[in-house]
């Protein structure tokens, strides 16, 4: 946790923004860490001055009650006004099953996510899209009563509401999640590579327009992985921590133990597949072309997910050689490594 705080202090001075994961368990057993993101996020925001933060991703499906998410991030916005965004997703078994919940299919998790976003939006006084199968009432005093298939509130109200319109972004790959992101949130976060992003962006824009939104006002967020070191072997070795995230259908696996994920990944994810999942570079300037491809494909924000053996060196060299190249183009950000 202390190392990550040092990284963001250095990163802010270099002009980055920050995305931080929100996990109970990490993707890897060996050398893994499992800090509570909301505590770390508060400490990071307190130690920086202007840096903006977004979670990637908070899962409002089981271990977090959506009303508590709404309260927590509203409080963060009061303390660090305009610097906090909420990235949401439908979760992974390693974070939900590990704390006592049964694992369910992606359709149910997506339905739970949509109900959760409705509650969060209602408590934040945001526009609440119509949703079939739920009852929602906000009375004249601002008390929210919600009855869904999975969640409910009874006259709930935030007595410390957010000061700003906190952005909500939603992870999406498939069509239904993309549709939900377009309807319920301010943008999508996707691990889809640039060469395969046109279909998902076309769907996102279509559903946004059908629901009265201007697609140009919404964000399309990507997070390519990078591992930089002048020694290629060291750069490649440092990608090992993320091998499990390259498992087939990784986000739907019913595995809650990082140790089991690690063992499965060592058997099923080849070195070649791992190389394809990460931009392994020995010259920092080689980060430029992959990022350009994201912007050219229509992404509006890119978080450079570094898994470099020396993160401080990555930040220093990236800020000197890569950030200036994009200074007059799009937003450039950095995501926390190894969380």
Structure description:
The protein is an alpha/beta fold. It has one domain: Luciferase-like domain (TIM Barrel). The chain has 13 helices and 13 strands. It has helices at residues 2-14, 37-47, 66-79, 93-96, 106-123, 175-184, 197-210, 232-237, 258-268, 271-277, 288-297, 311-321, 323-326, and strands at 18-20, 53-55, 84-88, 135-138, 144-147, 152-156, 168-171, 187-190, 219-222, 225-228, 279-281, 301-306, 331-335. The strands form two sheets. An eight-stranded parallel barrel has the order 1-2-3-7-8-9-12-13, surrounded by four helices. Strands 4-5-6 form a three-stranded antiparallel sheet, covered by helices on one side. α2 (37-47) links the parallel β1 and β2 (53-55). α1 crosses α2, α3 packs across α5 and α6 crosses α7 (197-210). 44% of the residues are buried. The mean pLDDT is 95.
Terminal Cα separation, in Å?
9 Å
Shape: globular
Secondary structural class? alpha/beta
Proportion in β-strands: 15-25%
Strand adjacency order, main sheet: 1-2-3-7-8-9-12-13
Please identify which CATH superfamily we are dealing with. Answer: Luciferase-like domain
Number of strands: 13
Evaluate the radius of gyration.
20 Å
In the CATH hierarchy, what is the architecture at level 2? Answer: Alpha-Beta Barrel
What pattern of helices and strands is seen along the backbone? Answer: HEHEHEHHEEEEHEHEEHHHEHEHHE
Question: Helix content range of the residues, please?
Answer: 25-40%
Number of helical runs?
A: 13
Largest sheet: 8 strands, parallel, barrel
Low-confidence stretches: none
The figure for the number of domains is 1
Arithmetic mean of pLDDT: 95
By CATH reckoning, the class would read Alpha Beta
The third-level CATH topology is TIM Barrel
